[in-house]
Design a protein that fits this description.
The structure holds 2 protein chains of 2 kinds. By secondary structure, chain A is of the alpha/beta class. Chain A has 6 helices and 12 strands. The model of chain B has no long low-confidence stretch (mean pLDDT 96). The chains are: A alpha/beta, B alpha/beta. At the A-B interface, helix 5 and helix 6 of A face helix 3 and helix 4 of B.
């Protein structure tokens, strides 16, 4: 893991050096998983940097598109998204407007199914079986599988080029722990992307986070941005 | 009494000590205000919290302590936080005793529609499909009619949330139970007659000889 603990320009330098396009030949078409639930637990500075660099035609996989001016809402506002795979857009009128205008494709996924598809993608599974969505529009085009007399939908795994993770504590190796309800999708997406960029409110020396309290182990984190 | 207050007070009577309960946005949230003093119930916010407490006093909001609508909440002593996979594992895995959700329509087979109006409102299902499919008990909290039109219908015209029938619908006019593909009128609202409920309801109701008034 490389650390960029100073100004964001440091991170910018790293971000534009070879690792940025790895797993994503044209950075314009990247798939990003972004942590946060209504922007709580979203790495705002990384979002701001994407807006500044004007990375376009992005696919975002996240719980929701937040609200205008907040978290993923900033990417929507800047019209940087081509597609959003999310469970909820109801609190962001920009998303709805762009969706109805045909500028932004929105795939709505039940929240519990979405997080399990990501978990599957991060843990080497091809997908999961769930009863959620059976007999609703969510079932369209999906395979039903019987197990012990019960019907389930086959929901396939999701992975992305980048995961943008917000942590509360990080040590210099990249071990992460999270704060309260800012945890949400973060530790799960940290497993499911080729490049994991973690932003932390506090960066502490190795050993400060007790092994029992590390939620995301250092080896899965590629880059660390300190929110100093 | 306001319709919302009648509904919330009646649903609060379904809670018992130690239950794990998820309250949706809107009328369901009000249920927490009507618990008997001293009763301890675990409230879950599906964004990753058990032990959700009342909204904080002004100036005391914590930026990373929020409910499933992103609003500041408090955490009661004994609270726990976890990621979304754990949160929905609790919901689907049979650990959630009760979920209370809002509704757009419920049909006489107990099927709920509450996540979209095609062409008009497409907010997304959020956690609703998992909650209705997975919770041990599902109660819908909604007003009986919208602009004079019954929300308890013969068959949902809106896209349904789950094929799993809800257990109870509580409105300001009635408590209706759904068992064996039938809608049974269990109670009427304060000062409401059985005939008034029938007149305001599109669904066919099965009506026992005795239908008591809600005890609030």
């Amino acid at each position: 893991m490389e650390c960029a603990t100073g100004e964001l320009e440091d991170w910018d330098k790293h971000a534009n050096s070879p690792p940025w396009p790895v797993g994503c030949d044209d950075p314009r078409w990247c798939q990003l998983m972004i942590g946060g639930f209504m922007a709580v637990g979203t790495p705002e500075r990384v979002i701001d940097e994407i807006v500044r660099q004007n990375k376009r035609d992005l696919t975002v996989i996240a719980n929701d598109t937040a609200a205008p001016g907040k978290g993923i809402g900033k990417l929507v506002e800047a019209k940087l998204l081509r597609k959003a795979i999310v469970s909820h857009i109801g609190l962001n009128p920009d998303t709805e407007r762009q969706m109805l205008a045909g500028e932004l494709e929105v795939e709505l996924v039940p929240q519990g199914t979405l997080i399990e598809r990501i978990r599957a993608g991060g843990t080497g599974l091809g997908g999961i079986l769930t009863q959620t969505g059976i007999g609703t529009p969510v079932e369209n085009g999906k395979q039903r599988i019987e197990v012990d007399g019960k019907s389930y939908l086959l929901e396939t795994a999701l992975r992305a080029d980048f995961a943008l993770v917000q942590a509360f504590l990080a040590d210099y190796l990249g071990n992460l722990s999270y704060a309260l309800t800012a945890r949400n999708f973060n530790p799960v997406i940290a497993m499911a992307a080729d490049i994991v960029i973690a932003s932390a409110d506090n960066v502490v020396p190795v050993g400060v986070i007790s092994p029992d309290h590390v939620v995301t182990p250092a080896p899965v984190v590629d880059y660390l941005v300190a929110n100093l | 009494m306001e319709p919302q207050t009648i509904i919330a007070r009646r649903i609060a009577k379904e809670l018992s000590p130690g239950m794990l309960v998820n309250l949706g946005i809107g009328i369901p949230t009000l249920v927490a205000n009507h618990l008997p003093a001293g009763m301890h119930v675990f409230f879950q916010s599906e964004n990753g919290l058990i032990g959700t407490g009342a909204p904080p006093e002004e100036g005391m909001a914590h930026p990373t302590l929020t409910d499933a609508a992103g609003r500041p909440v408090t955490a009661l002593p004994g609270a726990s936080t976890f990621d979304s996979a754990m949160s929905f594992g609790l919901i689907r895995g049979g650990h959630l005793d009760l979920t209370v959700l809002g509704g757009l329509q419920v049909d006489q087979a107990g099927r709920l529609a509450n996540w979209m109006i095609p062409g008009k409102m497409v907010p997304g299902m959020g956690g609703a499909m998992d909650l209705v499919t997975g919770a041990k008990c599902v109660i819908v909290a909604m007003q009986h009619t919208a602009k004079g039109v019954s929300k308890v219908v013969k068959r949902c015209t809106l896209p349904i949330t789950s094929t799993r029938p809800v257990d109870l619908v509580v409105t300001e006019l009635a408590v209706i139970a759904f068992r064996d593909d039938r809608a049974t009128l269990l109670e009427t609202g304060p000062g409401v007659s059985t005939a008034q409920v029938v007149a305001a309801t599109e669904a066919e109701l099965s009506i026992p000889n005795q239908v008591p008034e809600m005890a609030l």
